């Protein structure tokens, strides 16, 4: 009998997305945030189908020839995914209908083309003629020999055109809804305090007689459809192509990827549905997902916020107390380590560090890794200014950062034009470490400072992502950061230099080995009746070797505590565990993105921040870094923050074997919402420091 040792990764991911849906359902969450969570759920699911479902389909096609980590039974997992997704879609529709009722109570009405007043009808028609019409190109699909390639980020109106007296045959047409060019939401005029919003597709629906008047039809039905395509592209082994050419080719091919999901309004005309499924080359059981009238809820992340009366209760980020009264971030960091906790602390301190380096006459060079940058990146601005001031600047741009490939190609061009030396990756290894190394020369003495972070160098996402960033001039840490950059500048010949890192744990050369050593040390301490524990905070836990080692530790008496936002493949309940494993997931206003590892070490904890999740891809196929926290006060501060999260009984869900997503029960204890408690904890430290 084959007993499963781990939970299937994709099923665990769907359980994570169900937690996102719980936030949309939770009436204690502000209404505008509930709508945003529906958008996040929808966007997550799109990406899941584009990457994971597409991968499972490839496994089935290729069988044993597949050059990927094979799931035991991909077809069984696909069947399970289909079942769960349809169930979640039904829950989604119920939650959306509930939100619509709550919107009405707040005097906000989402109206369709049949509910417009005379004044609103004129407004919609004028808006269509002035703003929308130029983007509308009807496709009479029955007359097209080659069916058009439907963009997987777009929604389409599938229309049936007919004549009431049946004097001309009915026809089918497709219209792309131009959400890339125009807002999905149009606020309508109102003489009362009631707010009315119509969706862009309903503006188009209202104007269908106008669009198709040329054809002589007078009866129209239209329903939203959406195709999700395989978004993965293989970087072929053509040696005559550069990595950039391969990525550009992959981006073009992505637009024509195989359909992996077809979503449609369940009220669509059966004949039209059958026709579309046939022309798209799908089968009736192949990820066809029926839904309601609206699709592409990811656009609802940008639902108009200004129409809500309630002001945000979110506290604004504040400057770290050590940096608050200093004229220079650099001078503080040269004296002592500073740990920034985003989004509670302001990201401006990171930008300021780079700006100061850009104009400091004693700074010789700046080296930095970039994975996902903000659209109007202040990081890039600081780097280009540094070049203008005569600094040598090196930027490692990971061109294979999924769905950011195009943006990073543009950044490469801009940086190179400014004179920045751009590194574009390592063959077969994504560079995911978040590092900065600044070299300063004073009186012929060279010193290094910079930072190691758990999050992307992105000031936009730093406002909503929970991450940690260590600003440091520690010689041992910076020596290893320097070694990583030396490797990145010459990866073909310098792999040995990564192995010589003494302080940082570095993937793929020594992180797995050292993590196993740390766990083994805790096992040894537990056997010797010494304090033994492992606290792990990551986005995902799916590496089978590390999971089995954690389970072994739990069976031998090591206290295991897990905070995992997303995928958790570990069975956390086992009668053989000497102490129950505490495993929770926190989904709240901020996205928990940090990775933290705490090994009890007989009362002298080893604490690390890291860019790496505990997944095979991070440990074995990426350049990742885990950095020890050496300074006692910062170490204690980080331990306290993790303790607060482990006590969360408002937004924490229990990660059990059944993936039930039950909330942690506050019982009679004080209610603790960790994100608010952490904010208060750090604000109190700020006050105390004054």
From TrEMBL:
Query: Which metal ions or organic cofactors does this protein require, according to UniProt?
Result: Mg(2+)
Chain ranges of the Polyphosphate kinase C-terminal domain: 329-491, 504-675
What are the catalytic residues? 432
Residues of the Polyphosphate kinase N-terminal domain:
7-111
The residues that the entry says bind ATP are 44, 465, 565, 593
Q: Give all residue intervals belonging to the Polyphosphate kinase middle domain.
A: 120-303
Q: Which reaction does it catalyse?
A: [phosphate](n) + ATP = [phosphate](n+1) + ADP
- Keywords from the named record: ATP-binding, Kinase, Magnesium, Metal-binding, Nucleotide-binding, Phosphoprotein, Transferase
Q: Does the keyword Glycosyltransferase apply?
A: no
Q: How is it modified after translation?
A: An intermediate of this reaction is the autophosphorylated ppk in which a phosphate is covalently linked to a histidine residue through a N-P bond.
EC number per UniProt = 2.7.4.1
> What is a single molecular function from GO for this protein?
polyphosphate kinase activity
Family recorded in the similarity comment = Belongs to the polyphosphate kinase 1 (PPK1) family.
| NCBIfam families for the chain | poly_P_kin, PRK05443.1-1
Give the protein's biological function: Catalyzes the reversible transfer of the terminal phosphate of ATP to form a long-chain polyphosphate (polyP).
Query: Any idea what this protein is called?
Result: Polyphosphate kinase
Specify the species: Ferruginibacter yonginensis
Which gene does this sequence derive from? ppk1
